[in-house]
Amino acid sequence: MQRHSKLVWSYIVVTIVVAIMLLYYVRPELTWTTIQGIIFFTIFALVAEATPVRLPRGEGSVSIGFVFIFASIIIYGPGVGAWVAALGTISKKELRGEISLEKTLFNRAQLATCASVAGLVYLHSGGSVGEVIFPDHLLPYFASAGVYMLLNVSIMVGIMALAQGTSFLNMWLVNFRWLTLNYLALGPIAVLIALVYTSIGMFGVLVFVFPLMLARHSFQRYIDMRDVYLSTVTALATSIDAKDPYTKGHSDRVNKYSIQMARELNMTEDQVEMLQYMSILHDIGKIGIKDVVLNKPGKLTEEEYEEIKKHSEVGHKIISEIKYLAKGADVVRHHHEMYDGNGYPDGLSKGDIPLGARIVAVADAFDAMTTDRPYREAMPKEEAIEELKRCSGTQFDPKVTEAFIGVLERGNATTG
Ligand SMILES: [Fe+2]
Question: Cβ of 347: how many Cβ atoms within 10 Å?
């Protein structure tokens, strides 16, 4: 606990106190029906939480636990919903004691707060407990699911911002974007479950949940498949890096810098994903260039330079033929274009150069400057930043350069 700053610690305490007050305020009448509801939905939520869907690129996981929390709010009201949220989201790690007590309590408090407030919003915006009236109750559904999501993201990002010193707004936006989609997809399922439960009963829900689990399984398979793509792409890039000992790890670092810039520039998740593949593969065309030219320690002749320059077009051709990657191929083609139009292969300038290519250009140059090369030693990071600034507006897109310098100065990127 000493590692927590006072601020983080107060944040945890306040969240727990607020949750206890809310749990008391919305407490359900303890009847056999409400106890049954808590047990039934807690079990479902626990199963859902224990089998989360892993997101691509190792970026955490999503579970469908919210479906059961939200359904219990509609069926039984905020009191039961709050307990389902608090109990139904306990993870295996928490049970095994691998997570500190304060964190475990904080997590419980966070979710109980979200469900209590979402339940109150549901009631006060016209929703009625125990019945599903569609579409009359559309507003209460939206309002309460929306409030649940907003609170959940804000409490979570709040503690992350305090503990890690990162920007609240930035992190909030990144999380908010994909969570919105998540909740938009899960909300209707919760309403459906509530409908099945109120009209057929518990058995109906059991029958309904089975296909849901199947859907989860195929979704996971789909995500796993995308991870396989990424491994294939990385393996391809490693083979390029292996051709030249001086560029070992180059694709990897260019990828890391590019993703950081993309996030800083608020690109969408789809764009970030495509950029990830393209930044890893940006020099794939070097596969077609003779090793003697590629690894030549001295100055290149005009002819050799022309040969090297071909790699962006060759890369573009290779990528265009891979169905899954084809729409990003332009990033590879144009990663040596210059902002002022003096680059190659097409002499594009400014906004005509795809944003991804402008990003990779900055990442590529920065990594080239900050690593040892046959003809010179690595430049210190500060000097490389100065160089980026100097070439901003001529070689590099000023907006992209600014974004990258922002990332570097906050220390989110490491050279190495
Ligand atoms: Fe290149």
Answer: 12
